[in-house]
Amino acid sequence: MQRSQSSKNYKKGQVKIEFSPKLITTLGGTAALFSRFFEKIGLQELVEKIYPVQEYSNNSTGVFSKLVSLFISVLNGGTKFSHINYMENGIKIFERCFGVKRLVKSSTGITRYWNKYNRRSLNEILLQNISQYFMRPLLKYAGIEQDTLRFDSTVITRYGKQEGAKKGYNPTKRGRPSNHPQLAFLGSGYTVNFWNRSGNTRSANGIVEFYLQTRGFIEGIKVERVLADSGYYDRNFILKLEEDRVEYVISTPIYQFFQKLIYNQTEWTRVDEGIEVSEFTFSHQNESWRGGRRYVVVRQEIKKRPRATGKQLSLFQDEDYGKEYRHSLYITNNITASPYEIWCYYRPRANVENIIENLKDGFGLSAYNMKSFWATEAVLMTICLILHNLVTVLIKEVLHTRDKDRKLRTIRMEYLVIPALLGKDGRDDVLRLGISNPKRQTKFAEALDRLKDLRLTFYCNAVENMEVA
């Protein structure tokens, strides 16, 4: 029975307010687009192969149901597990569209599952399964034969007493506990590895092991070069890259001895208005570095390029030179390219910052966390390596959006947040999307047609996973 607005509060000419029990959702675009996407690629069968913790109780909703609930929440702007509660009547629509008997309706239903990832060994199995059953088929489908490999880390501020939340480098919330995860990306935009770490961990900690594991995950793809920021200016990492004969360009901290070398440089080559480049060879006194290496320095004149990136030389801050320029410094084992070309090789690495920003602001990387360190890692691993990469495929292959419109926040407003009503057409369920603009109707219909032609399918015919109670 519908409940009308009280006549005492109703004024003549005013729109009446009533409540409806009909199956309505504001997230009709998500239900329409992603239900077909997940069915097309066989995500439910894939999940059963990937996740080492399965549920076999008759009362359980199943792992796929829990992932769908999490993904729906993330895709539509959720920043905590409890935001799944906002679906209300719409949950029945998602159950029918995604073909599951029952979706999780409460945050505890999701967190109870993730809390079962309570030790490192389970996460190692999960990561290996994601690589074997998901990452390799995905990259093979994408047809990537060679690409750049990029490493970065980010700081995630924590506000509770989560495991691994330690005080460390935190540029935005100084003194606050944080996590300091490490990520690996391909230049094509795919996230290929993720480790969660305590907040007091330095950027390059474990990078050699992380690099080796990542190379194993992308086996078959030729690494053109490795790009990394100054946090990865690490002797062991550089020596390993040289041992593997992998070209690298790594940003270098401008220590005081580097500042003196830069200040004394006399040969600069102008490459653009207010931009000059130079190079020098430097040998660390520590013999374990095994000789000198090539360094490329870029200086930009602040007056002509006020938004230039880089550092001013703190040793010479009282001199005109220290006030006039910002500098960037890079180490490389490429001995043939010009200094300007080396800088051009490195500059696309900035896209990593955009991906991390998208993961934090769009996918809730900064928000989804639990008390257990390993449970948090399992959730974030799922968001970064599975959901983010699936959205990347959808954007590239189905939505065909421009580069600047590829952030999830933009996609959400254009394709996901669409009112919809679940009705009937004979015996068939029909999801009626509330799109009145003809151009937008055509755009959405074309995306659904391209989704039908998508050829990405995950075939999971490998050995059965370990069953974990």
Walkthrough of the structure:
- It is a single chain.
- The chain has 469 residues and is α+β, with helices and mostly antiparallel strands.
- Helix content is 38%, strand content 17%.
- It has 15 helices and 15 strands.
- It has a nine-stranded mixed sheet with strand order 7-6-2-8-9-13-12-11-10, with helices on both faces. Strands 1-14-15 form a three-stranded antiparallel sheet, covered by helices on one side. A three-stranded antiparallel sheet has the order 3-5-4, with no helix packed on it.
- It starts with 23 loop residues before the first strand and ends in a 17-residue tail after the last helix.
Class from secondary-structure proportions: alpha+beta
Rg, Å, rounded: 26 Å
| End-to-end Cα distance | 45 Å
Mean pLDDT: 90
What's the arrangement of strands in the largest beta sheet?
Answer: 7-6-2-8-9-13-12-11-10
Question: Rough shape?
Answer: elongated
| Helical content band | 25-40%
- Spans of at least 5 consecutive residues whose pLDDT stays below 50 are 460-469
Strand content of the residues, in percent?
A: 15-25%
Order of helices and strands: EHHHHHHEEEEEEHEHEHEEEHEHHHHEEH
- Helix count equals 15
How is the biggest beta sheet arranged? 9 strands, mixed
Annotation, overall tally of beta strands: 15
Question: Keyphrases for this structure?
Answer:
469 residues; nine-stranded mixed sheet; elongated; alpha+beta; 38% helix; three-stranded antiparallel sheet
Could you give a quick summary of the protein structure above?
This protein has 469 residues and is of the alpha+beta class. Helices cover 38% and strands 17% of the residues.
